Each structure stands twice: as C-alpha cells, then as structure tokens.
Amino acid sequence: MKYLAPFLICFVLALTASAANRPNILFIIADDQSPFDLKVYDPNSTLETPNIDRLAAEGMVFDAAHQMGAWCGGVCTPSRHMVMSGRTLWHIPDKTMPGRSPLSADPKYVPTDLPRHTMAAVFNDAGYDTMRTCKQGNSYAAANKQFTVVHDAVKRGGTDETGSAWHAQQVLSYLSDREASNDSDPFLIYFGFSHPHDTRDGKPELLDKYGAVNHKDRNSLPAANPKQPPLPVNYLPAHPFNNTDMKVRDEMAVSGVWGKRDERTIRNELGREFACSENIDIQVGRVLEKLKSMGELDNTYIVYTSDHGMAIGRHGLQGKQNLYEHTFRVPFIVKGPGIKPGSRATANIYLLDVLTTICDLTGIEAPETCEGSSFKPVLEGQSESVRDVLYGAYCGGDKPGMRCVKKGDWKLIKYESSKDGTKETQLFNLAENPNELLPEHHASHVIALTKTTPKPNQTNLATDPNYAEKLAEMEDLLLTQMRSHDDPYRFSDQPNDELTNPIGFDDPRPTLKQPRQRKSIRSNQ
User: Given the DSSP bridges, would you call strands 349-350 and 343-345 parallel, antiparallel or unpaired?
Assistant: First the structure.
C-alpha cells in the first residue's frame, strides 16, 4: 500500500491539472441582430463594433450560419430552445403544454428529461463552473435553471443600469469572484443581451452618433438626420404580399415604427438599433479585457452570435417572422485555441450545432439527445462543410406558413395561408442575387430611395421558364427536408403523407403518425 499511495496522489494531481487546462467557453448571444448590420458581413455598414471586428480578425467568421426557424411569433423561444438542447425545430418543447408546435409535448419527439441533457447540465456534470446572464422570457426556462449562477433580467434601457452594461457587469463580477477565490475550474459563461431587440432605447451619446431619437409619437415622423444609417439595399416601402403573418406584433406594434415603413422612420430605427449594437460591442470589450487580465483569454473559446436576424425595413418588413437571409442567417464568429486568425468558413451550420460543437472542443461527450453536428473540424481547418442542405420554417401565423430550403447557390421560399388563400413561391440564385431582390426592387421610386439599381437577373426566378427544372428540383428537396425533420404541416401542392389533426386546436395543426428514426437527423442533409 505504501507504494500505491504516491501513485494515487500523482494520478489525482494529473487529473486536477488536466481539468484546470481544459478550455473555457464564453458564449455571447445578442437578441435580434442581423448579420448584415456588422461590417464583417457588410463592409458598407456604418455600425462601429471594434471588439467584434477584433474577434473576427483573431478567429473565424461563418458566412452560412442559420437558425432553423419558429412555430411562433416569438422566434426567440424556439431558437433558444435549440441552442440549449442541440435539437431540431420540431423536436423541442415550448413554454406551455401543449405548445404552439403540435409535437412539443409528445414524448415520442421531445424527451421528458431533456433539461438534464441541456448545455449547463452537461457542462456541470463534466466539472465545469457554469454561469448565465441574459434576458428573461421567450427562452428555455428549465434549461436556464441548470446553470449554477444565474442573473437574468430584461435590460433594454438607455443607461448602464437599465441596458447592456448590466449584463456585462454580471459577467465581470462573476469573473472577479473566481479570481478572488483562486477558482481554477474551467468555466462556461452564457453571456446574453436583451438588446438590440426593441424597444431600442440607446444611450444618448450613441443615439446622437447615429442621428437617432427614441421616437414615441405614433402620429408624427422622427426628424431626418444625415448621420442616420442609409436604407438597406433591399429596402421596400411594403412587402409585396401577405407572408402569412403580417399582423404579428413586430410588424405592427414596435414602438417608434408601428406599421410605418417610410424612409425617415426606418432610418431612425436603424440608428437606434446601431446605438444599441455598438453598446453591446463596448460591453463585449470590457469582458474580453477582464479575461485577458486574468490570463484566461488564450484558453477560452469565444462565440459571438444572435438568436436570429432582423428585417428593419428590408423587404418592407420590420420583424424576424420571415425566412429571408437577413433574418434566417445569424452572425457567427468563433475565436479560440487552434482557430486560424482572420479565417472565414462557408460551411452551412445551425445554431442547434453549438452544443455538440462546444462539447467536442472541450472533450466532453455530447448527450445522446443532441441532433446537431459538430463543426469543430471546420474550426480547425480540417473540413470545409458540415451539411449540404439547410431547411427553415416559420408558421407563427396562418398555416402552413413559410418554408425554405437552401443548397449551394440556390434558395426556395414557399408561402401559404389556409385562411386567405396566399400561395407564393420565390426562387433565388444567391450568388447572383445575395440580397434576394424582388421585382419591386426594380421600381424607379425604390431605386431612388436605396440608390441601388438591380441587375435584370436579380429578382425572383420562380416564374421564369428558364429555371423550371431548378424550381422542380428545389421543390422536391424541400419536401424531403420537411419529411426528414418531422415537419407536421404540408403545402396544398404536396402529398399529405397521412398527416392527421390532433384534437384540441382551433386551427388545423397536423401531427405525424410515427416519428422518424433519430439517426436520419444527424445526416448531412
């Protein structure tokens, strides 16, 4: 025994040293931020975010990161459920039971013990210290409770106490406490903001920088100011058709905008959004400086993203209840050990891939409930792709709502309302038409406002007979994706696949008779 004791001591010390050297995770998530607000995605943007730019320069920028969609107007809710659980859109719970997704309370699709397999629970079990600060509501409450330290509150004001600085202070205080107690455990910090989600009450000095005011009078227009951001190139005074949810709160009731889409209103609201986003950048910088002073920065994987994108005038829309790229895509930047500085990735990823990936990066086994794919090989330069096809859904309004599918340069979006007869299809070549410009963008009065003259082929190609074969291919691909993701709805021109309507809903909400096999979710499709 006297020879065994030193061996055990050395073994324990080795394990302790190994645990202490494991990389930390700082996961930063904004609320309602389009990637095209940032210079790293749109060099013409007037938004200044030097700390986010520095993360991009020192890490990897993803050009095809997406959120999968939503079955409710509060797109934040399913998005954050997917981030926390690593599961696909139709395999997550809702805040209520039965939920707004017809499958959300069905244990065949959603494990009853899922909270025990979410982000914080997994990292707690692996010996990490876990901390969270974010907005309250429209989130996965049962998963949020798994964090050891939680400081959640809605902070959308224009002061340090009522705005984004409050969230940063929670992280800074937590790191100071660790420093004071010589805590050497690796940590996972979920650093969330309540902005730039409306109401976008920015700090006065930042509002002034972007020529914006916190407009409160529904019966007047905000003042024009040359310092305000210009209109987006895909701005429209109105969306050309009912997209199945045009009366949702974001399109009708955002303070400062309401239902207006005129130039002065949109440019002022963009200025407010930019003021809030620059403040987020300032707070990110404070936390990065703290990590640097603690000697933890180089051993920390830092992710910067948003729960979804945002319209704010693009395509005549204001909110996040659509599947255009400004909303379907999200900003996504990763810096950390082994990631080539200044690199960019074209790999298609979902936000739901985050949990599997950070487990992979830290040597933790991802829970069996995860349906995402690890993009660690992309971060390390060993692979250029994760999946070939992306699927998106939105049905928070009329059913079946909107669906999209992307493959290569091509994207299809379908719309259908069972209530008013809306049936629309859009086909885009994103290589030639990255802003998804429509026929309405070619109108002279729109060109005068955006100062952008579209090329003839920068339009919806769905009715062009030259692209009939591509349209059919994408229609078939969409149906395949709807089936493989257990989408419980179908469009009227698709086979109904023996879907049935559950009892207890006022509107038709079909559900599948049998769940598909889980392994098909993890395929490259």
Answer: unpaired
